[in-house]
Write a structure and sequence with these properties.
Order of helices and strands: HHHEEEEEEHHEEHEEEEHHH
Number of strands: 12
Radius of gyration: 25 Å
Amino acid sequence: MINENDPSTLTTSGRLLNYNEAIKDGLQTGLTFTKLMDQLIRTTDADELVSAATQLADFQLDSDYVTFPHQYSNADYYLLFMSRMLELHDQGSQVILQSRDHREELTQQLTTLGDRGTFSFRVESSENGGVFYRERATGQSLFYLNLERKMFRFNSHALTQLFIIDLHETVPAETVKTSVQVLLDFARYLKEDYGYSVDFNILDAANRQNYSVRAADLPAGIVDRLFVTAAKNDYMLTNGVNGNGAEIALDNNVVVDIFNNQLEGQPEWVLTVHDDDQKISWFDVLLKYPFMRDWYLENLTDLEIKSDPLVFE
């Protein structure tokens, strides 16, 4: 019996027919790709945008018989998606996409930062999937995005390292705030428009937000040092409720608390920021008050705000 799928048993015409069908399939894959690209680039419908980006992020363009020499990487489609998402919300001017000469590779700049920060996505190779948005020169991964799982996580360590430490001497605080707001807005659109699970982390301005610090049982001396530095800067630090932790009142009715959130059982020390309009985050406090910034960074090993441990080490 002749096996029609065995090349050794095919007639010349049969081999040519199989070859031709394979070429057609490869070209059809290319056409499907171009339709998705059109959708990603041109659509004004947010749902269509997410759909195109999700498919392109895992798209395999080449086949055994048809290869396309000029291709963007899967990670680049996330940059296109982010830029288009901001554009649909009238913030397209906040980011600049750049391509390299003689090769298909995209990078992004936050407009207010200019060339002081160049960003791209890195595909996560583990079974978690998704991508990390990183600053290329420092390698700091500012957030994690997974389109399939509808998941977004900010990384407090990277945000602190890049914007509070590395750029502190060269970039004004207001410029930093404007730049970070672009990332914050992108996350907010995903949450509000598509129901993504978003951890705003150190950027969360909600009064209910408890920022868990790295040290489960915070050394007493750290709070004592805050008493001293607050007094030197003409701010009054008072004991927290029932003598647990401490509270400092800053300007414009902004109040920062540090306390043990679980008095019984395993301790969990947290920071909170309260303000009347719920517009001030811990990140904002670090930008505005040098003495709070210095205290936080000097005790970063214990005080660093924890990020999602399933995503960031």
